[in-house]
Amino acid sequence: MPNENTPLLYQYPEHLRHTLETLPARSGVYIFYGQDQTFPLYIGKSVNIRSRVLAHFRAVDEAKLLRMTCNIEYVETVGEIGALLLESKMIKDRRPLFNKRLRVTRKLCSLRVDDQTTGIVFSNELDFSTSEDLFGLFKTKFAAIEKLRDIADEQKLCYGALGLEKLSAKRACFRFSLGRCAGLCCGKETRVEHQTRLKMALEAMKVRSWPYPGRIAIEEKSGQQTEYHVLNNWFYLGTVSTLEAAKGVQTATPHFDRDSYKILCQHVFRHQGLNITLLD
Ligand SMILES: [Zn+2]
Protein backbone atom coordinates (compact mmCIF):
# COMPACT_ATOMS: atom_id res chain seq x y z
CA MET A 1 0.00 0.00 0.00
CA PRO A 2 1.87 3.16 -1.10
CA ASN A 3 1.82 6.13 1.26
CA GLU A 4 3.65 9.43 1.46
CA ASN A 5 6.79 7.70 2.73
CA THR A 6 6.94 5.25 -0.13
CA PRO A 7 8.75 6.38 -3.24
CA LEU A 8 6.99 5.00 -6.26
CA LEU A 9 10.24 4.53 -8.12
CA TYR A 10 11.29 0.93 -8.01
CA GLN A 11 14.71 0.27 -6.57
CA TYR A 12 16.27 -3.14 -6.19
CA PRO A 13 17.25 -3.63 -2.53
CA GLU A 14 21.00 -3.97 -3.16
CA HIS A 15 21.75 -4.21 0.56
CA LEU A 16 19.84 -7.52 0.72
CA ARG A 17 21.46 -9.16 -2.30
CA HIS A 18 23.90 -11.14 -0.12
CA THR A 19 21.03 -12.50 1.99
CA LEU A 20 19.20 -13.84 -1.02
CA GLU A 21 22.07 -16.17 -1.87
CA THR A 22 21.71 -17.93 1.46
CA LEU A 23 18.00 -18.67 1.04
CA PRO A 24 16.97 -22.20 0.01
CA ALA A 25 14.64 -22.96 -2.89
CA ARG A 26 12.61 -25.07 -0.47
CA SER A 27 9.47 -24.78 1.59
CA GLY A 28 9.40 -23.02 4.92
CA VAL A 29 8.92 -19.75 6.74
CA TYR A 30 11.04 -16.62 6.28
CA ILE A 31 11.46 -13.70 8.62
CA PHE A 32 12.48 -10.13 7.72
CA TYR A 33 14.42 -8.34 10.47
CA GLY A 34 15.29 -4.69 10.83
CA GLN A 35 18.15 -3.46 13.01
CA ASP A 36 16.64 -5.15 16.02
CA GLN A 37 17.11 -8.88 15.60
CA THR A 38 14.55 -9.66 18.27
CA PHE A 39 11.69 -7.89 16.56
CA PRO A 40 10.55 -9.18 13.15
CA LEU A 41 9.22 -6.81 10.50
CA TYR A 42 7.51 -9.43 8.40
CA ILE A 43 6.90 -13.19 8.44
CA GLY A 44 5.83 -15.18 5.39
CA LYS A 45 5.73 -18.74 4.09
CA SER A 46 6.26 -20.43 0.76
CA VAL A 47 6.95 -23.75 -0.88
CA ASN A 48 9.98 -21.97 -2.36
CA ILE A 49 11.45 -19.48 0.10
CA ARG A 50 14.01 -18.05 -2.31
CA SER A 51 11.62 -17.27 -5.15
CA ARG A 52 9.01 -15.88 -2.75
CA VAL A 53 11.53 -13.49 -1.20
CA LEU A 54 12.66 -12.48 -4.71
CA ALA A 55 9.04 -11.57 -5.44
CA HIS A 56 9.10 -9.26 -2.40
CA PHE A 57 12.24 -7.59 -3.83
CA ARG A 58 10.38 -6.77 -7.03
CA ALA A 59 7.27 -5.40 -5.35
CA VAL A 60 7.13 -1.62 -5.64
CA ASP A 61 4.68 -1.23 -2.76
CA GLU A 62 7.00 -3.09 -0.40
CA ALA A 63 9.85 -0.58 -0.75
CA LYS A 64 9.45 0.65 2.80
CA LEU A 65 9.62 -2.83 4.29
CA LEU A 66 12.69 -3.61 2.18
CA ARG A 67 14.47 -0.37 3.15
CA MET A 68 14.00 -1.22 6.80
CA THR A 69 15.06 -4.85 6.41
CA CYS A 70 18.65 -5.65 7.39
CA ASN A 71 18.53 -9.40 7.49
CA ILE A 72 16.33 -12.30 6.37
CA GLU A 73 16.22 -15.59 8.24
CA TYR A 74 14.31 -18.74 7.49
CA VAL A 75 13.10 -22.02 8.96
CA GLU A 76 12.84 -24.90 6.50
CA THR A 77 9.90 -27.29 6.61
CA VAL A 78 9.36 -30.61 4.86
CA GLY A 79 6.30 -29.32 3.02
CA GLU A 80 3.48 -26.85 2.65
CA ILE A 81 1.36 -27.93 5.63
CA GLY A 82 4.28 -27.46 8.00
CA ALA A 83 4.99 -24.04 6.50
CA LEU A 84 1.36 -22.93 6.88
CA LEU A 85 1.11 -24.09 10.50
CA LEU A 86 4.45 -22.62 11.50
CA GLU A 87 3.80 -19.27 9.80
CA SER A 88 0.45 -18.93 11.56
CA LYS A 89 2.00 -19.75 14.95
CA MET A 90 4.97 -17.40 14.46
CA ILE A 91 2.79 -14.48 13.39
CA LYS A 92 0.71 -14.91 16.55
CA ASP A 93 3.70 -15.32 18.83
CA ARG A 94 5.88 -12.59 17.36
CA ARG A 95 3.47 -10.02 15.90
CA PRO A 96 5.53 -8.66 13.01
CA LEU A 97 5.09 -4.99 12.19
CA PHE A 98 4.23 -5.33 8.49
CA ASN A 99 1.91 -8.33 8.43
CA LYS A 100 -1.41 -6.95 7.30
CA ARG A 101 -3.48 -9.78 8.65
CA LEU A 102 -2.17 -9.80 12.16
CA ARG A 103 -3.70 -13.04 13.25
CA VAL A 104 -3.55 -12.51 16.95
CA THR A 105 -5.44 -15.10 18.92
CA ARG A 106 -8.64 -13.55 20.07
CA LYS A 107 -12.16 -14.52 20.75
CA LEU A 108 -14.22 -15.56 17.78
CA CYS A 109 -17.91 -15.33 17.27
CA SER A 110 -20.30 -17.88 15.77
CA LEU A 111 -24.01 -18.33 15.13
CA ARG A 112 -25.64 -21.12 17.12
CA VAL A 113 -28.79 -22.31 15.39
CA ASP A 114 -31.12 -25.15 16.35
CA ASP A 115 -34.76 -25.94 15.58
CA GLN A 116 -36.02 -23.43 18.12
CA THR A 117 -33.44 -20.73 18.72
CA THR A 118 -30.77 -18.56 17.14
CA GLY A 119 -27.99 -17.05 19.18
CA ILE A 120 -24.53 -15.56 19.03
CA VAL A 121 -21.80 -17.37 20.96
CA PHE A 122 -18.14 -16.58 21.71
CA SER A 123 -15.13 -18.89 21.71
CA ASN A 124 -14.00 -17.79 25.16
CA GLU A 125 -17.29 -18.98 26.63
CA LEU A 126 -17.93 -22.11 24.60
CA ASP A 127 -15.58 -24.77 23.22
CA PHE A 128 -16.12 -24.40 19.46
CA SER A 129 -14.16 -27.58 18.69
CA THR A 130 -16.78 -29.83 20.29
CA SER A 131 -19.98 -27.80 19.88
CA GLU A 132 -22.70 -28.80 17.47
CA ASP A 133 -25.00 -26.39 15.63
CA LEU A 134 -22.37 -23.67 15.09
CA PHE A 135 -22.25 -21.79 11.80
CA GLY A 136 -19.59 -19.37 10.63
CA LEU A 137 -16.45 -18.06 12.32
CA PHE A 138 -16.58 -14.30 12.65
CA LYS A 139 -14.02 -11.91 14.04
CA THR A 140 -16.66 -9.59 15.45
CA LYS A 141 -20.22 -9.76 16.69
CA PHE A 142 -21.06 -7.10 14.12
CA ALA A 143 -19.93 -9.38 11.27
CA ALA A 144 -22.08 -12.23 12.62
CA ILE A 145 -25.13 -9.96 12.82
CA GLU A 146 -24.54 -8.68 9.26
CA LYS A 147 -24.49 -12.25 7.97
CA LEU A 148 -27.67 -13.08 9.84
CA ARG A 149 -29.38 -9.99 8.44
CA ASP A 150 -28.34 -10.86 4.85
CA ILE A 151 -29.79 -14.34 5.18
CA ALA A 152 -32.95 -13.03 6.84
CA ASP A 153 -33.51 -10.71 3.85
CA GLU A 154 -32.80 -13.47 1.36
CA GLN A 155 -34.95 -16.09 3.10
CA LYS A 156 -37.75 -13.86 4.42
CA LEU A 157 -36.93 -14.70 8.02
CA CYS A 158 -38.34 -12.71 10.90
CA TYR A 159 -35.96 -10.10 12.40
CA GLY A 160 -37.93 -10.35 15.62
CA ALA A 161 -37.45 -14.10 15.98
CA LEU A 162 -33.74 -13.73 15.21
CA GLY A 163 -33.28 -11.09 17.87
CA LEU A 164 -32.36 -8.43 15.31
CA GLU A 165 -35.22 -6.21 16.41
CA LYS A 166 -37.77 -6.04 19.21
CA LEU A 167 -41.09 -7.67 18.55
CA SER A 168 -44.26 -6.43 20.12
CA ALA A 169 -46.35 -9.25 21.51
CA LYS A 170 -48.92 -10.88 19.25
CA ARG A 171 -48.33 -8.48 16.42
CA ALA A 172 -46.76 -9.13 13.05
CA CYS A 173 -43.49 -7.34 12.48
CA PHE A 174 -43.15 -4.38 10.14
CA ARG A 175 -41.27 -6.41 7.53
CA PHE A 176 -44.24 -8.81 7.32
CA SER A 177 -46.44 -5.98 6.09
CA LEU A 178 -43.83 -5.27 3.40
CA GLY A 179 -43.74 -8.92 2.35
CA ARG A 180 -40.16 -9.32 3.62
CA CYS A 181 -40.95 -11.69 6.49
CA ALA A 182 -42.75 -14.97 5.79
CA GLY A 183 -44.68 -14.52 9.05
CA LEU A 184 -43.28 -16.57 11.89
CA CYS A 185 -44.22 -13.62 14.08
CA CYS A 186 -47.92 -14.01 13.20
CA GLY A 187 -48.27 -17.75 12.83
CA LYS A 188 -47.96 -17.95 9.03
CA GLU A 189 -45.11 -20.42 9.36
CA THR A 190 -43.74 -22.65 12.12
CA ARG A 191 -40.56 -22.08 14.06
CA VAL A 192 -39.09 -25.30 12.66
CA GLU A 193 -39.75 -24.18 9.06
CA HIS A 194 -38.15 -20.83 9.83
CA GLN A 195 -35.07 -22.38 11.47
CA THR A 196 -34.72 -24.97 8.71
CA ARG A 197 -34.44 -22.26 6.04
CA LEU A 198 -31.87 -20.48 8.16
CA LYS A 199 -29.81 -23.63 8.68
CA MET A 200 -29.90 -24.50 4.98
CA ALA A 201 -28.67 -21.04 4.07
CA LEU A 202 -25.83 -21.43 6.59
CA GLU A 203 -24.97 -25.03 5.72
CA ALA A 204 -21.72 -24.24 3.88
CA MET A 205 -20.47 -22.34 6.93
CA LYS A 206 -21.09 -25.10 9.45
CA VAL A 207 -18.24 -25.37 11.94
CA ARG A 208 -16.84 -28.87 12.07
CA SER A 209 -16.37 -30.51 15.43
CA TRP A 210 -12.93 -31.99 16.06
CA PRO A 211 -13.40 -35.45 14.53
CA TYR A 212 -10.90 -37.34 16.73
CA PRO A 213 -10.84 -38.55 20.34
CA GLY A 214 -7.80 -36.38 21.10
CA ARG A 215 -4.45 -35.45 19.61
CA ILE A 216 -3.42 -36.42 16.10
CA ALA A 217 -0.14 -36.47 14.20
CA ILE A 218 -0.25 -35.59 10.51
CA GLU A 219 2.62 -37.10 8.58
CA GLU A 220 4.19 -34.94 5.87
CA LYS A 221 6.90 -36.36 3.63
CA SER A 222 9.25 -35.09 0.99
CA GLY A 223 11.96 -37.38 -0.36
CA GLN A 224 13.81 -38.83 2.63
CA GLN A 225 12.42 -36.30 5.10
CA THR A 226 9.38 -36.72 7.30
CA GLU A 227 7.68 -34.41 9.77
CA TYR A 228 4.77 -34.99 12.15
CA HIS A 229 2.47 -32.07 12.93
CA VAL A 230 0.66 -32.52 16.24
CA LEU A 231 -2.78 -30.96 16.73
CA ASN A 232 -5.63 -31.21 19.20
CA ASN A 233 -9.06 -29.59 18.98
CA TRP A 234 -7.94 -27.59 15.94
CA PHE A 235 -5.01 -26.25 17.92
CA TYR A 236 -1.46 -26.63 16.57
CA LEU A 237 0.88 -27.99 19.23
CA GLY A 238 4.10 -28.36 17.25
CA THR A 239 6.10 -30.33 14.71
CA VAL A 240 8.55 -33.15 15.42
CA SER A 241 10.50 -35.63 13.29
CA THR A 242 9.33 -38.98 14.75
CA LEU A 243 6.03 -40.50 15.85
CA GLU A 244 7.64 -41.38 19.17
CA ALA A 245 8.39 -37.71 19.80
CA ALA A 246 4.87 -36.76 18.66
CA LYS A 247 3.44 -38.77 21.57
CA GLY A 248 5.33 -36.51 23.96
CA VAL A 249 3.92 -33.27 22.53
CA GLN A 250 1.34 -32.24 25.08
CA THR A 251 -1.70 -30.04 24.96
CA ALA A 252 -1.17 -26.44 25.82
CA THR A 253 -4.18 -24.53 27.08
CA PRO A 254 -6.53 -25.47 24.27
CA HIS A 255 -8.55 -22.82 22.53
CA PHE A 256 -10.19 -22.72 19.18
CA ASP A 257 -7.77 -21.52 16.52
CA ARG A 258 -9.29 -20.25 13.31
CA ASP A 259 -6.06 -20.46 11.29
CA SER A 260 -5.30 -24.09 12.12
CA TYR A 261 -8.96 -24.91 11.55
CA LYS A 262 -8.78 -23.42 8.05
CA ILE A 263 -5.41 -24.98 7.24
CA LEU A 264 -6.68 -28.44 8.19
CA CYS A 265 -10.00 -28.08 6.37
CA GLN A 266 -8.42 -26.66 3.21
CA HIS A 267 -5.12 -28.51 3.00
CA VAL A 268 -5.40 -31.72 4.98
CA PHE A 269 -8.92 -33.12 5.07
CA ARG A 270 -9.61 -32.26 1.45
CA HIS A 271 -6.76 -34.40 0.19
CA GLN A 272 -6.51 -38.15 0.35
CA GLY A 273 -3.34 -39.99 1.09
CA LEU A 274 -2.10 -38.10 4.13
CA ASN A 275 -1.27 -40.33 7.04
CA ILE A 276 -2.98 -39.33 10.26
CA THR A 277 -2.15 -41.13 13.51
CA LEU A 278 -4.31 -40.94 16.64
CA LEU A 279 -2.14 -40.18 19.66
CA ASP A 280 -4.74 -40.50 22.44
ZN1 LIG B 1 -41.85 -11.16 11.31
TrEMBL record:
<keyword id="KW-0234">DNA repair</keyword>
<keyword id="KW-0267">Excision nuclease</keyword>
<keyword id="KW-0227">DNA damage</keyword>
<keyword id="KW-0540">Nuclease</keyword>
<keyword id="KW-0255">Endonuclease</keyword>
<dbReference type="GO" id="GO:0009432">
    <property type="term" value="P:SOS response"/>
</dbReference>
<dbReference type="InterPro" id="IPR050066">
    <property type="entry name" value="UvrABC_protein_C"/>
</dbReference>
<keyword id="KW-0742">SOS response</keyword>
<protein>
    <recommendedName>
        <fullName>Excinuclease cho</fullName>
    </recommendedName>
</protein>
<dbReference type="InterPro" id="IPR035901">
    <property type="entry name" value="GIY-YIG_endonuc_sf"/>
</dbReference>
<dbReference type="InterPro" id="IPR000305">
    <property type="entry name" value="GIY-YIG_endonuc"/>
</dbReference>
<keyword id="KW-0378">Hydrolase</keyword>
<dbReference type="GO" id="GO:0004519">
    <property type="term" value="F:endonuclease activity"/>
</dbReference>
<dbReference type="GO" id="GO:0006289">
    <property type="term" value="P:nucleotide-excision repair"/>
</dbReference>
<feature type="domain" description="GIY-YIG">
    <location>
        <begin position="25"/>
        <end position="100"/>
    </location>
</feature>
<keyword id="KW-0228">DNA excision</keyword>
<dbReference type="InterPro" id="IPR047296">
    <property type="entry name" value="GIY-YIG_UvrC_Cho"/>
</dbReference>
<dbReference type="GO" id="GO:0009380">
    <property type="term" value="C:excinuclease repair complex"/>
</dbReference>
<dbReference type="GO" id="GO:0016787">
    <property type="term" value="F:hydrolase activity"/>
</dbReference>
